[in-house]
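A favour, since you know our structure tokens better than I do. Just paste the record in under my message, thanks.
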Amino acid sequence: MSNHIPLFAMNRCTSVEKLDENRLLSVCRLRDTETVAEVRLSIALPGLEIIAAEAVFSHSRFEPPADLEERLARLAGVRVGSGMLKIISGLLGEEENCRQLVYMVEECCHGVILSLTRRVLEKAPDDEAGRFAFYANMVKKSIRLYDRCAAFAKGGRLVREYEKELGGGKP
């Protein structure tokens, strides 16, 4: 008799592509044991306004909402930036079958923020101590970066000072 060990695997990737001078495309792809899905957001520059959203759930533990296209259409006009997480959740819904969709839309938005942060990263000083202080200060100035990529992950070297200021709690 063999032991049955449940298996779980996950691969999630978010990419941002500049389509032209006026538009970005942010795509979040998820493939795990329970879900195969893709969310695509078209973003207008320079205002970072969502102009189109689409999603495909090829396989999911939960059926996506029957009115998925209608819910995604509600995102048109939402700006990527402060307050967007509550807005996205409110527009897409908080039902259990919407959680993955909301998360993937948020990932697309965070991808846009991180892609635009690259220009700021290029301004870091050349010396190691200066770079460290520069990057650590970035998190303090823009808490949206906190835990959004490996460099700014919880417990990491670059966020320790920020976490001390929080008293060990979450932002």
About this structure: The mean pLDDT is 86. The two ends are 48 Å apart (CA to CA).
